Amino acid sequence: MQPSTLLMVLILALLFSTAGGGELNRRSFSMGVLFALLLFVSVFLHELAHAATAKGFGRTVNEVVLTLWGGHTSFDARGLTPKVAGVTAIAGPLANLVVALLAALPIWLGWVELDLLDRVAGDIWLYAALQWLVWTNVLLAIFNALPGIPMDGGRVVESIVWASTGSRFRGMYIAAWCGRVIAIGLVIYAVAAPLVQGRTPGLFDIAWAALIFMVLWPAASQAIKVSQAMLARESISLRQLMVPAVALPHTASAAQAATVARDTGAGEIIVVSPDGHAAGHFPVTLLNAVPESDFEQTRLVSVTMPLPRGATISIDATGEALVQALNEWWGKADVLVVIDAGGFAGVLRLADAMKALQ
To answer: What does the DSSP 8-state code read for residue 285?
Structure first.
């Protein structure tokens, strides 16, 4: 729990105790505190459902946090799939429906009744608490199931689009725009509903409209920004970004390299070690630094820029794989050898890759 959670409990207690123009007194404020605490208990159970589902899929759950605006669950999302993401997201709203059902059972079965002729304080509070749990959890389930980020329903939409298109970030982009539409729609509803009922929107209505917008709009906008950046990464093609290269054994001469490069249009030479690995490289333009009289005698092994073993990347690598490769090789190598169908296709200069990602 964060310190802001207590602040939100107090704010909600004030809002609940004065909802509908009611008088703020000790009894109404006490009821407001009870309702606020039950709301956060419901949010906590919602987040526990996310955590339990993630653990059910073998994921490590890092934390469950109650914040100023509700809560969130953090778990290991490496290698995430649409199924895991979607099922984990929908578990929260389903948990709220279960809580609502359990809270409604004592009322439906007649175990807790509100006798208007003989009110007992404890009965009234218990009845009110159960009624509040029912409607709070129903509303939490409906709200979180709305099909837009940051709601759980938005993550379900993201997973469906992800499974259909193969692109997680295309799903995120669509779900985030849905979140923006929902944010505007809920604000309009919060203000318009009282007008339709023939009354002026009160402080409670305006406060809820502001809270909803302050939560939904920034989160959806941030998701749009992230998805756009990641979609741009996905569009990066190593075939266009790499410098075409030709592979030659380390025993070849500079003259042979110049001839092959001229015939193939290669911009880089990949120097191959005796065991078939890329041992080094050098740009074809550096051949100009070799005196023409030494072309035949100069061997590639004497002019090559060495490469650490394993500094390679597949030509079909996605933007995310490119980011991982940069994290691994930045500062250790200046280029990566691009592999296509088991052969050497070109050279990817890490400075060019960084520029493209930016």
So the answer is: G
**Beta pairing class for 335-340 and 343-349:** antiparallel
Give per-residue burial for 204-214: e unless 16+ CB within 10 Å, then b. bbebbbebbee
- DSSP states of 203-218: HHHHHHHHHHHHHHHH
Q: Examine the pLDDT at 271 and tell me if it is beyond 80.
A: yes
Instruction: Report DSSP letters for 160-214, one per residue.
Output: HHHHHHS-HHHHHHHHHHHHHHHHHHHHHHHHHHHHHTTS---HHHHHHHHHHHH
Cβ(332)–Cβ(309) below 8 Å: no
Q: What is the pTM of this model?
A: 0.72
CB atoms under 10 Å from CB of 172, counted, come to 25
Domain coordinates of the chain in residue numbers?
A: 3-234, 238-357
Convert the pLDDT of each residue in 130-158 to its tens digit.
888 999 999 999 999 999 999 999 999 99
φ, ψ (nearest 5 deg) of residue 265: 75, 20
Chain centre distance of CA 85: 10
Q: Does domain 238-357 have CATH number 3.10.580.10?
A: yes
pLDDT in tens, 151-166: 999 999 999 999 999 8
Residue 177 predicted with pLDDT over 50? yes
